[in-house]
Specification:
The structure holds two protein chains of two kinds. Chain A has two domains: 74 residues, Methyltransferase, Methionine Synthase (B12-binding Domains), Chain A, domain 1 (Orthogonal Bundle), CATH 1.10.1240.10; 128 residues, Cobalamin-binding domain (Rossmann fold, 3-Layer(aba) Sandwich). Chain A is of the alpha/beta class. Chain A has a five-stranded parallel sheet, sandwiched between helices. Chain B contains 18 helices and nine strands. In chain B, helix 14 links the parallel strand 5 and strand 6. Chain B has a domain of 128 residues. The two termini of chain B are 21 Å apart. Chain B is an alpha/beta fold. Chains A and B meet through helix 4 and helix 8 of A and helix 12 and helix 16 of B.
Chain lengths: 209, 418
């Protein structure tokens, strides 16, 4: 199984898929294969945090993971108890960029989270409705542009007005984010890097349990 | 009171001296912003984008009141692929088509119905900045050979019909009619350009940039593939990506020189904007394999033709700083967004001109006092020895507060003098 993890972390697409098929054909436990894939993704995530892997690498890793999952899914039944936590995520109103958000989703899913993706250009009310419906521990607001900053503030205000703010942690992500923005919009954390965001979310959720 | 001609000459001299890495009379300030001047003048973003008279009104008011050494008020880029497809047919026409959306407003967006941009008052609300995101790739992964072997025919025959909804069937009345309408719009372009530049010059205006040389990898990622698919191509078909970049580089260098000549003749500015986008997202190995060689190639050609590449390293460049020393000393301006400017200075020393230092978030969420303090510290740090230009993150003024932008400007005048 270590071979699979290593091949994912080394971004060797053909090798990963070949190994996954071989293991499945040999009737090995699909959950162990899944774990190996997750470990590979976690490894490349760590490389990204250490500054040795970059977004284009993460996109390739995410693609390999998705392809491996397509092979594994027919053999896997994932139960509620195996879900690490729930996250609602979307790109805020007025912004239609999705790269950072999509990477965060891939890595959150690989880490075992149940993720609700609200898409791009998401109105504040849609976040509020999704929080009521899915009851996540964490809400992620994504935005590439400086014009996303005010909509982030507006979204968090709407969440507070709906009396849902106390129940959740909010993280804002995007290239223009910094501590000043985080305080201005009223979030709990900020990141420029999607994988760093996943790490923060994991710490929050695991810290609770 | 100096007349505008003298103020203009002083700005030109100030920016050119700084670009050489030397000390001018004051630290220059040069900024590109799309819609902030509209907000300042109380004009809607939609009107600034679509109405050329409003555009001139907003531009002249802003130039007069802020009096920056360099100011660019660009609009969009959606006609660039059509221009590129025409590059092998008629270079002047191609340039006219390509820059029409950048300089002359929303007509091309409406006429061509491109898949790239969303505009204020159209796809977006009236006061939301235009955005540029490719819906889905307009070139498939099995089409690199066509791009490499017969680029212009492939672009016109295959990419253009996918990139512009109104050109979907090039034989249709809609397509032919749309192209004729584009021709009518282009006909108005020299008149508009003359009026805009003439009126702006009365306000002693000099552009931060008025010419453009994009690089191959970014063009492929922004206009042909999309971010995700090009990322995968780097792994799955590296040789084809490089071959396509190799072929595009000379074409894009020519774009830089031709727009550079227009800029130099019309505005006096020899700066050519070289936006660099993928760098943030590439490992140093991949950057050196797919991105930097072609950027360097274009920069070399521009410098040889006596232009000053204004290299805008968007996002982060912290992991790639050693490459800067391979660029010609005193001949380029290195403009950074989120990169740690003090680390850049450590690497390049006094040999290169650097530009940056103003985070967007400070202008948006800060106060005039905070802005002033930040400006004082930043200018004090980078001013000594020259070769420093105050600027913001690329197109990063967004929802900046007017009082903060004023404080930034005043601080340059107060602390920037040598």
């Amino acid at each position: 199984m270590k071979e699979i993890s290593d091949a994912i972390a080394d971004l060797e697409e053909d090798k990963v898929l070949k190994l996954v098929k071989e293991k499945l054909d040999a009737n090995e436990d699909p959950f162990k294969i899944l774990e190996a894939c997750r470990k590979g993704i976690a490894d490349i995530g760590n490389q990204s945090i250490e500054g040795t892997a970059f977004l284009t690498d993460l996109i390739m890793a995410g693609e390999i993971f998705k392809e491996a999952m397509e092979l594994l899914m027919p053999k896997l039944v994932i139960s509620e108890s195996e879900i690490k936590g729930k996250v609602v995520i979307g790109t805020v109103e007025g912004d239609i960029h999705n790269i950072g958000k999509n990477i965060a989703i891939t890595f959150l899913k690989a880490a075992g989270f149940d993720v609700t993706d609200l898409g791009v250009d998401v109105l504040p009310q849609k976040f509020v409705d999704a929080i009521k419906e899915h009851k996540p521990q964490v809400v992620g607001l994504s935005g590439l542009l400086t014009l996303s900053i005010e909509p982030m503030k507006k979204t968090i205000e709407s969440i507070s007005d709906a009396k849902l703010r106390e129940e959740i942690k909010i993280i804002v992500g995007g290239e223009r984010m910094d501590q000043g923005v985080c305080e201005h919009v009223g979030a709990d954390a900020w990141v420029n890097d999607a994988v760093e965001g996943v790490k923060i979310i994991k710490n929050w959720v695991e810290g609770e349990s | 009171m100096e007349d505008s001609e003298e103020i203009y000459k002083a700005k030109l001299e100030r920016l050119e001296t700084a670009a050489k890495g030397k000390e001018p009379d004051r630290v220059p300030i040069g900024i590109a912003t799309t819609y902030f001047p509209a907000k300042y003048a109380g004009v809607s973003y939609h009107d600034m984008f679509y109405d050329n008279n409003k555009y001139i009104e907003v531009g002249t008011k802003f130039a007069r009141d802020f009096n920056w050494d360099g100011l660019s008020l660009l609009r969009s880029f959606e006609s660039a692929p059509l221009g590129l497809a025409l590059a092998g047919y008629d270079a002047d026409l191609a340039i006219g088509v390509a820059v029409s959306s950048a300089l002359a407003g929303g007509a091309s967006h409406d006429i061509l119905a491109d898949v790239y941009s969303s505009m204020p008052g159209k796809e977006l609300k009236e006061n939301v900045e235009s955005q540029f995101v490719i819906d889905k790739p307009v070139m498939n992964d099995d089409e690199y050979d066509d791009l490499i072997e017969r680029p212009f025919e492939f672009l016109m025959g295959t990419v253009i019909p996918r990139a512009y909804r109104n050109l979907e069937n090039l034989n249709s009345p809609t397509a032919v009619g749309s192209l004729l309408k584009m021709g009518q719009e282009l006909n108005k372009f020299p008149g508009f350009l003359g009026e805009f530049v003439g009126k702006m010059k009365e306000e002693a205006w000099l552009p931060w940039y008025y010419a453009l040389a994009p690089n191959p990898l970014d063009v492929i990622g922004a206009f042909l593939r999309d971010f995700d698919t090009l990322s995968l191509d780097l792994y799955r078909m590296p040789e084809k990506v490089k071959a396509a970049c190799e072929n595009l580089a000379p074409v894009l260098a020519t774009v830089g020189k031709m727009t550079g000549k227009i800029s130099r003749d019309v505005t006096g500015s020899r700066r050519v904007f070289c936006p660099i986008w993928y760098n943030t997202y590439l490992s140093p190995e991949k950057y050196r394999e797919f991105h930097f060689p072609y950027i360097k190639m274009i920069v070399k050609e521009l410098v040889e033709a006596d232009f000053t590449p204004l290299m805008c390293f968007q996002g982060r460049y912290d992991h790639l700083l050693d490459t800067l020393l391979e660029l010609p000393k005193g001949k380029v301006i290195l403009w950074f967004d989120k990169t740690d400017l003090s680390k850049v200075k450590d690497v390049v020393g006094g040999d290169y001109c650097i530009a940056g230092g103003i985070p967007s978030s400070l202008l948006i969420s800060g106060t005039p006092e905070k802005v002033k303090k930040h400006m004082e510290e930043t200018i004090k740090k980078y001013k000594p020895g020259g070769g420093y230009i105050v600027t913001t993150e690329f197109n990063g003024m967004g929802d900046a507060k007017i009082e903060n932008v004023k404080a930034m400007t005043e601080a340059v005048m107060e602390y920037g003098k040598y």
